[in-house]
């Protein structure tokens, strides 16, 4: 029970402000258990003993919860299997771990208190209430888990939301709600961790210390249940209300972003200029730079219409199809190291056709999940060629389409999420009847053919139980084992429903990350409840907008591009320079590897040869798959050999994880741009832009203008022009080298290599 509760007051925005600290009676320990018929108290193994073992780390992965256990004693990770743990504690080792007649001699108490040698050190104080609970449970007969035990339904944390300031502290309290309607204070048994240590830290007892400004959260874990305490810490430069009231708002995105900026005392940067928006929108929407004609057409349009008209042209362009086909091919792992050449081509063409037809996202995913047929005729079947066991299919479908990593639940209940081992195998059983034949026996044009079909029977056996789980989508109703329908149809129905809390959020977050450089949730494909969004109302509203738009991805892209939030300048203000996630400005970021290589070729009017495929084991083969002029963003296959793309972080498409792509800068990248075999040969090419301008008797001013317009989508300022003229004059009569060095300087500049 709680006593001396904090005094709370409601701020103007309706956020709770912590004025005092929560003081907990009994230091947050559990309430006494219900009395037995003989009048003696009896603690529950499932709800009390397991909680103590979890709190003190006894069943953690670093201790007895590891797969092999420690010192001959193995427990289930974080106590997910109470029956097995009870057997290990009371029956194994000749029952020496429990001494009912003399609880203090029980190994369960003697080792963690240091009475007997214990490699895990002292974990339990003999004067603690946890020691007394274990001793009383043993003395009362060490009863095991029973079917009639109350089950944990959920946990609640107080305060759930708090508005604080740097240097403040606040004590969290945690309550467990059980199926018999009991509410128990379990603060001392809960585990706490901060989602962002720069904003707030938390100790093992739930005492929060505020370190910086922003919106953070404290994760609370108890009994495989998760709850969040959200913390708002405004920055130290209040923004006048009337200043934000005058900021233009184009749609719901702006409303929700400005609401958060007001709460956090952040001032939005002004709108970017037209030329900056032109380059930014091209790179983010179609993955290439505007050419001179596109730039001029944009600037010739009426000022009030030019941005909206540009957005529509980009969304309707062939370049859009190339770019987004490539983006989805990353996620779907179109990879010649794992698929035969004709299958790679069929898979890529299937994705491209879906993008070209503006197929709704729910339809795309449904067609992948329920695919059958020949791998070279129905490209969608290759999703299953990449993931050939029901377990792999489960994990990769959840990661790709729901943003959920449930692989940990394969061996035990997920330690950071609510997914259980039973749920994992219920989900896996939906894929149990997927079968394939061929793949090497039949051949057409020399390539293996794989035919995907669904069998009439078959189930996945759950190893820990020795029997299958009913086929069940996560958080949904189970199917009958004998239902003859393809189980994947029920999975697709559940997954693509507008009401599914994960499906629309997952793809919304991926699209958002493309346009802003980071998702509302980071990592972009990690949407577990314990990893909160930087702006939860905005993610929720954006996902709902997509669902209401019948999962038309272009509708979501359009509303993002049209928002003032997206169109803000990337230049920080004194009152928002500390912000790196709340969208007070546009955040500059390096171009992805493929876009950067294509941009160099576009500026210099050169091309890159893609004539080798590098297979695993350093086996390189020549290929004529890609004709001269193929852009990096048009490559079917991540196995195409390219030192530049590898160096700059191309996604190798080995696993379904956005972490495969890297935007991290490195010294190798700098050296390669400086003197590698990508940029320098292009600058020296006989028929590049510089050579053509020289053949046309262009002067230095014309070269400077051409390079700036092509590379930066703007003209140079007079100061820039004069500085560059002066540099060229230092070369005297060697204008060829001067122009090459000028182009090199521009193509290695931050303004060119970054989108801003």
Characterization of the model:
The chain is an alpha+beta fold. It contains 28 helices and 23 strands. The strands form 9 sheets. It has a 4-stranded mixed sheet with strand order 6-14-13-10. A 3-stranded antiparallel sheet has the order 5-8-9, with no helix packed on it. β11 (200-202) and β12 form a beta hairpin. α17 (503-516) packs across α18 and α25 packs parallel to α27. The longest helix is centred in the middle third of the chain and has 16 residues, at 341-356. It is globular, with a radius of gyration of 30 Å. The chain starts with a strand and ends with a strand.
Silhouette: globular
**What would you report as the Rg, rounded to the nearest angstrom?**
30 Å
The average pLDDT is 90
Q: What is the strand arrangement across the widest sheet?
A: 6-14-13-10
Could you give a short description of this structure?
With 756 residues, the chain is of the alpha+beta class. It contains 28 helices and 23 strands.
Task: Explain the layout of strands and helices.
Blueprint: E1 2-3, E2 8-10, E3 16-18, E4 23-24, H1 45-55, H2 82-90, H3 107-110, H4 129-139, E5 152-158, E6 161-163, E7 169-171, E8 173-178, E9 183-185, E10 191-194, E11 200-202, E12 207-210, E13 214-222, E14 225-233, H5 241-245, H6 252-264, H7 274-286, H8 292-300, H9 306-315, H10 318-332, H11 341-356, H12 361-369, E15 373-374, H13 382-386, H14 390-402, H15 421-428, E16 434-444, E17 447-454, E18 461-462, E19 467-468, H16 487-495, H17 503-516, H18 536-548, H19 553-562, E20 589-590, H20 593-604, E21 612-615, E22 619-622, H21 643-647, H22 667-675, H23 679-683, H24 689-695, H25 700-712, H26 718-729, H27 735-747, H28 750-753, E23 754-755
Parallel strand pairs: 6-14
Antiparallel strand pairs: 1-4, 2-3, 5-8, 7-12, 8-9, 10-13, 11-12, 13-14, 15-17, 16-17, 18-19, 20-23, 21-22
Helix pairs in contact: 1-4, 6-18, 7-9, 9-19, 10-11, 14-15, 17-18, 17-19, 25-27, 26-27
């Amino acid at each position: 029970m709680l006593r001396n509760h904090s005094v709370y007051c409601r701020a103007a925005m309706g956020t709770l402000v912590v004025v005092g600290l929560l003081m907990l009676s009994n230091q947050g320990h559990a309430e006494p258990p219900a009395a037995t018929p003989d009048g003696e108290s009896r603690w529950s193994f499932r709800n009390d003993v397991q909680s103590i073992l979890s709190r003190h780390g006894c069943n953690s992965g670093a201790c007895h919860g590891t797969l092999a256990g420690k010192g001959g004693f193995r427990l289930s990770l974080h106590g997910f299997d109470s029956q097995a743990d009870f057997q290990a504690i009371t029956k194994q080792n000749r029952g020496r771990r429990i001494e009912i007649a003399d609880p203090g001699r029980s190994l369960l108490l003697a080792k963690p208190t240091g009475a007997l040698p214990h490699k895990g050190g002292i974990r339990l104080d003999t004067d603690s209430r946890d020691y007394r609970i274990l001793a009383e449970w043993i003395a009362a007969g060490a009863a095991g888990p029973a079917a009639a035990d109350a089950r944990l339904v959920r946990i609640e944390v107080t305060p759930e939301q708090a508005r604080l300031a740097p240097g403040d502290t606040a004590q969290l309290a945690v309550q467990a709600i059980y199926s018999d309607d009991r509410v128990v204070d379990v603060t001392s048994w809960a585990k706490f961790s901060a989602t962002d240590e720069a904003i707030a830290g938390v100790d093992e007892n739930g005492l929060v210390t505020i370190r910086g400004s922003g919106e953070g959260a404290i994760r609370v874990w108890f009994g495989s249940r998760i709850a969040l305490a959200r913390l708002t810490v405004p920055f130290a430069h209040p923004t006048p209300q009337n200043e934000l009231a005058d900021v233009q708002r184009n749609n719901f995105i702006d409303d929700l972003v400005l609401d958060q900026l007001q709460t956090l005392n952040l001032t939005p940067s002004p709108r970017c200029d037209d030329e900056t928006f032109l380059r930014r929108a091209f790179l983010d929407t179609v993955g290439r730079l505007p050419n001179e004609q596109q730039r001029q057409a944009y600037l010739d349009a009426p000022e009030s219409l030019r941005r909206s008209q540009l957005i529509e042209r980009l969304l309707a362009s062939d370049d859009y199809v190339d770019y987004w086909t490539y983006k989805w091919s990353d996620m779907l792992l179109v990879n010649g190291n794992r698929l035969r050449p004709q299958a790679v081509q069929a898979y890529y063409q299937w994705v491209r056709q879906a993008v070209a037809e503006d197929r709704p996202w729910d339809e795309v995913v449904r067609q992948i999940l329920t695919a059958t047929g020949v791998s070279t005729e129905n490209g969608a079947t290759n999703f299953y060629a990449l993931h050939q066991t029901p377990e792999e299919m489960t994990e990769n479908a959840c990661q790709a389409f729901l943003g959920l990593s449930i692989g940990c639940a394969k061996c035990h209940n997920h330690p950071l999420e609510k997914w259980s081992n039973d749920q994992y195998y219920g989900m896996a059983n939906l894929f149990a009847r997927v079968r394939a034949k061929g793949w090497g026996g039949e051949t057409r044009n020399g390539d293996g053919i794989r035919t995907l079909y669904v069998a009439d029977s078959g189930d996945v056996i759950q190893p820990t139980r020795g029997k299958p789980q009913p086929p069940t989508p996560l958080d949904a109703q189970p199917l009958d084992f004998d239902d003859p329908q393809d189980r994947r149809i029920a999975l697709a129905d559940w997954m693509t429903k507008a009401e599914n809390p994960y499906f629309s959020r997952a793809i919304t977050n991926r699209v958002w990350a493309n346009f802003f450089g980071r998702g509302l949730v980071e990592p972009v494909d990690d949407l577990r409840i314990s990893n909160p969004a930087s702006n939860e109302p905005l993610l929720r509203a954006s996902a709902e907008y997509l669902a209401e738009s019948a999962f038309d991805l272009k509708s979501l892209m359009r509303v993002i591009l049209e928002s003032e939030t997206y169109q803000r300048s990337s230049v920080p203000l004194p009152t928002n320079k500390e912000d790196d996630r709340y969208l007070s400005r546009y955040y500059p970021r390096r171009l992805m590897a493929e876009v950067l290589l294509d941009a160099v070729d576009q500026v210099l009017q050169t091309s890159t040869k893609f004539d080798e495929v590098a297979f695993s084991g350093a086996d390189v083969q020549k290929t004529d798959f890609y004709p001269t002029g193929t852009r990096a963003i048009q490559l079917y296959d991540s196995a195409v050999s390219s030192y530049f793309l590898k160096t700059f972080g191309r996604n190798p498409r080995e696993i379904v994880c956005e972490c495969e792509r890297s935007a991290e800068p490195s010294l190798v990248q700098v050296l390669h741009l400086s003197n590698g075999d990508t940029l320098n040969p292009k600058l020296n090419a006989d028929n590049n832009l510089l050579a053509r301008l020289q053949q046309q008797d262009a002067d230095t001013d014309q070269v400077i203008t051409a390079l700036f317009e092509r590379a930066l989508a703007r003209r140079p300022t007079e100061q820039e022009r004069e500085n560059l003229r002066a540099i060229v004059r230092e070369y005297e009569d060697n204008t060829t080298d001067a122009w090459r060095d000028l182009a090199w300087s521009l193509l290695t500049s931050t303004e060119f290599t970054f989108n801003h």
